[in-house]
């Protein structure tokens, strides 16, 4: 889904699709690492959560930079492409969310993975609404605003996960 959203985001000149594509790549990396540390001790799980927080932080900053760039270099994104790809991404992320839901409170690692999945659903819904808004308004602003909102969500979640993982690492060190 990352490749589909990246290509579509570039073709559609869409900040929100590129933001969601970055999130898809981050999720794939995070899920893989989370599976790797699933049976490891709490120190490994805290390190995994720290890595996830850093990935979310990097993507949040990258998406914010893209939103600023699109503000300074205006081009109308393709609302139809945004909406269709947003629906496909929502379907993919809903499946992941449902698989992870019952494990969301198992430990810090699973909690941070579930938080990523929950955020994806909000981001996907925002992307779909963006596509519709761009079609009806013929404006680039819905895409920039939703891209910025996705960046803010990434950053808020990143700081939360980083704070929790650093506290867990500190507790393990004592």
Q: Which features characterize this protein?
A:
174 residues; mainly alpha; 6 helices
Please characterize this protein's 3D structure.
This protein has a single domain, classed as A middle domain of Talin 1. With 174 residues, it is an all-alpha fold. The radius of gyration is 17 Å and the shape is elongated. It is built from six helices and no strands.
Distance between the termini: 42 Å
Q: In the CATH hierarchy, what is the architecture at level 2?
A: Up-down Bundle
Number of strands: 0
Q: Which shape, going by the Cα principal axes?
A: elongated
DSSP summary: helix tally: 6
Query: What is the total number of structural domains?
Result: 1
Strand content: under 5%
Q: CATH topology, what is it called? A: A middle domain of Talin 1
CATH class: Mainly Alpha
Structural class: mainly alpha
The share of residues in helices is over 70%
The radius of gyration computed from the alpha-carbon positions, rounded to a whole number of angstroms, is 17 Å
Contiguous uncertain segments of 5+ residues: none
Q: How would a crystallographer describe the biggest sheet?
A: none
Mean pLDDT over the full residue set: 89
Helices and strands, in order, run as HHHHHH
Summary?
The chain is mainly α and 174 residues long. It has six helices and no strands.
List the helices and strands and how they pair.
Elements: H1 2-12, H2 15-37, H3 42-72, H4 79-100, H5 108-137, H6 141-173
């Amino acid at each position: 889904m990352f490749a589909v959203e990246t290509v579509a985001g570039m073709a559609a000149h869409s900040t929100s699709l590129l933001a969601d594509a970055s999130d898809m790549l981050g999720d794939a990396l995070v899920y893989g690492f989370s599976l790797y540390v699933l049976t490891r001790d709490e120190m490994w799980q805290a390190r995994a959560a720290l890595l996830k927080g850093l990935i979310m932080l990097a993507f949040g900053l990258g998406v914010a930079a893209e939103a600023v760039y699109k503000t300074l270099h205006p081009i109308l994104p393709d609302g139809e492409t945004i909406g269709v790809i947003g629906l496909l991404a929502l379907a993919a992320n809903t499946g992941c969310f449902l698989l992870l839901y019952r494990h969301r409170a198992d430990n810090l690692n699973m909690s941070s993975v579930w938080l990523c999945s929950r955020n994806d659903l909000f981001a996907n819904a925002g992307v779909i609404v963006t596509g519709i808004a761009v079609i009806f308004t013929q404006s680039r602003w819905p895409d920039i605003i939703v891209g910025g909102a996705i960046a803010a969500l990434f950053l808020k979640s990143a700081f939360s996960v980083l704070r929790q993982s650093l506290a867990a690492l500190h507790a393990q060190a004592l």
